[in-house]
Amino acid sequence: MNSSIDTNSLLLQLRAMARDAGIPSTDKPSSELTLGADRIEFSKVLENSVQQVNGRSIEATQLRESFEAGNPNVELADVMIAAQKARISFEALTQVRNKMVAAYKEIMSMPL
Hints:
mainly alpha; elongated; FliE; cell projection; structural molecule activity; cilium; cytoskeletal motor activity
């Protein structure tokens, strides 16, 4: 069984998720991302993604509560769309976490 990770595929998936999360992309090669004054830290990107997923969840909850309270300005369709956005965002974040754990396990199992 071959459990190697295709790094190019993983990088493309992460870039697509970052774009969907509203994180601006850069066209610089990865070697330039870690050098210079405009250094992008992975932890900050991950933190921003978690905050955006949390924000979508809070927004969906607030819309649901407003609809349940009888607010005439809140449509059922808006509530359902916000709930689906929150669910999909959470699932995407979960997939990123799963990929990171798999990559970590693969690195840890490499012989020295």
